[in-house]
Amino acid sequence: MAQRPSIPKGTRDFGPQIMVKRNFIFETIRNVFKRYGYQPIETPAMENLTTLLGKYGDEGDKLLFRILNSGDFLSGIDTNAADFQSGNIASSISEKGLRYDLTVPFARFVVQYRNDISFPFKRYQIQPVWRADRPQKGRYREFYQCDADVVGSNSLLNEAELVQIVDDVFGQLKIQTVVKINNRKILAGIASYIGSPDSLTDITIAIDKLDKIGIENVNRELEERGISAKSIQLLQPILFMTGNSREKINALEGLIGTTEIGAKGLEEVKTLFDYLDSMNLNLSYELDLTLARGLNYYTGAIFEVKALNVSIGSVCGGGRYDDLTGIFGLPDVSGVGISFGADRIYDVMSELNLFPEKTSESTFALFVNFGKEEEKYCLPYLRTLRQAGINSEIFPEADKMKKQLRYADQKNIPVVILAGEEEVKNKQFTVKWMQSGEQQTIQAEKLVELLTH
Q1: Mean pLDDT of the 9-27 span
Q2: Separation CA 226–CA 24 (nearest Å)
Q3: Pairing outcome for strands 335-340 and 365-367
Q4: 91, 100, 103, 93: which is closest to 73 by C-alpha?
Q5: CA–CA distances in Å: residue 317 to residues 24, 181, 182, 294, 337
Q6: E strands present in 108-249
Q7: Mean pLDDT, the chain, whole residue set
Q8: What is the dihedral of CA 215, 219, 224, 225, to 10 degrees?
């Protein structure tokens, strides 16, 4: 008995109904990116391991999918040697790997083509990435990222524009969101203010748990992580800070404004909020001091976008990085970017029933096939509908009427067009609206007009 076909764990097949919805998300995001002047690029699915290794930390390196060299990949390697172990020979038998994200390949792209691109360079990229992670609910080994970045500019107007993009995308997808905003320099200022500048990561990991475990447990964890009692005491007014974003910024000025890095972070956040306040955005945005987001990676503003009315993680995130291209020999090129999580957006829209019933990819009209003469009569009008931008098809065989209507039903085709012997003789069509069951007979030349109004 033949083995049942399957796909690797952590990957997925998408049928037509799901793909129509996924493409609706991708197209919405792509169209907004284009409207803001971002240009498309694509990079290969595989990169040289010299490009990928060492950019994501030890844990990230372990999650890279490596590709065996083609041909006899063990040729030239002594398989009887004492050190013949996977870790020792990995670099000799594999020189390429599947990309882990879109950011490192983008950095490589900018450096490689620096003489061909104009700075500031605004690019978007919508492509799959791969991670050798343990598959579980909501976590896959292959998934899409939808990134927009601008490099070669320090202006905070870029950050504000990215929030505008978030507002536009989720406005069109009808998802209510809130943007949480923080700044890496503010977090560094907090660590410096309480006298523990080297414990930034420990402090933010603990702060992040405030809502879940409460203040006593947060303080206990800080103590366990080696933070002094004095530092913990200085941190309390920050942990209990209330008020809106402006009030928090004002309160922080009296605390961390005395530190150089803290003052710089507060200045950046104030400038960003000034921009946002003048943009008449529909979404809400707020300063969230517990937002840490990939601390080693970002150097300035950081964002996280949460969907309201649904319990799920962030649907979009990003921030500023000061030396994206330095790892490839082009230092001091600052950038800022965001990434939309297409899979989570899909889950939110499914849960809240936000997908439109009809999209540009659905068939709108089906010609029923009654036989060779009727077929010949319908074909020129089928072409006319398609030229008018109406997605149309004809059933390929003169099958039973019931079967053809069932086909239309299963594909959610809203309009069925019939041309039997009588209609052909009178140069007419009978148009049936599937949902209501209503039908009307019209002159053939009126078909496009009827279906476009």
Answers
A1: 94
A2: 50
A3: unpaired
A4: 93
A5: 20, 10, 12, 10, 9
A6: 121-130, 142-151, 177-183
A7: 90
A8: 100
For the stretch 194-218, what's the b/e string if a residue is b when 16 or more beta carbons lie within 10 angstroms of its beta carbon?
bebeebbebbbbbbeeeeeeeeeeb
Helix (H) or strand (E) run with residue 400 in it? none
Burial-class residue 318 by CB neighbours within 10 Å (0-12, 13-18, 19+): buried
Q: What is the strand order of the sheet 415-418 is part of? A: 392-394, 365-367, 415-418, 428-433, 439-443
Tell me which residue has tokens 């069925």.
416
Q: Where in the chain is the domain with CATH 3.30.930.10?
A: 177-307
Which element (helix H / strand E) includes 321? strand 316-321
Q: Which amino acid is at 321?
A: Y
pLDDT on residue 82: 55
Question: With contact defined as beta carbons under 8 Å apart, do 229 and 218 qualify?
Answer: no
Question: What tens digit of pLDDT does each residue of 135-179 get?
Answer: 887 789 999 999 999 999 999 999 999 999 999 999 999 999 999
Mean pLDDT within 373-401: 96
Q: Nearest-CA neighbor of 111 among 301, 335, 302, 319? A: 335
**For 93-146, what is each residue's pLDDT tens digit?**
778 999 999 999 999 999 999 999 999 999 999 999 999 988 887 789 999 999
Please state which CATH number belongs to domain 365-451: 3.40.50.800
Residue 286 identity = E
Backbone angles phi, psi at 203, to 5 degrees: -65, -45
What is the DSSP track for 227-293?
Answer: --HHHHHHHHHHHT--S-HHHHHHHHHTTTTTSHHHHHHHHHHHHHHHHHHTTT-SSEEEE-TT---
Architecture of the domain spanning 177-307: 2-Layer Sandwich (3.30)
Question: Cα separation of 363 and 20, whole Å?
Answer: 11
Residue entry with tokens 């291209």: 325
User: What is the location of CATH 3.40.50.800 in the chain?
Assistant: 365-451
| Cβ(304)–Cβ(172) below 8 Å | no
Structural contact between residues 34 and 27, judged by C-beta atoms closer than 8 angstroms:
no
Q: Is 91 helix (H, G, I), strand (E, B) or coil?
A: helix
Q: What is the DSSP letter of 5?
A: P
Pairing mode, strands 365-367 and 392-394: parallel
Residue the block writes with tokens 């202006």: 155
Biggest distance spanned by C-alpha atoms of the chain:
95
Distance between CA atoms of 42 and 102, rounded to whole angstroms?
A: 9
- Number of helices (H) and strands (E) in the chain: give both, helices first: 17, 16
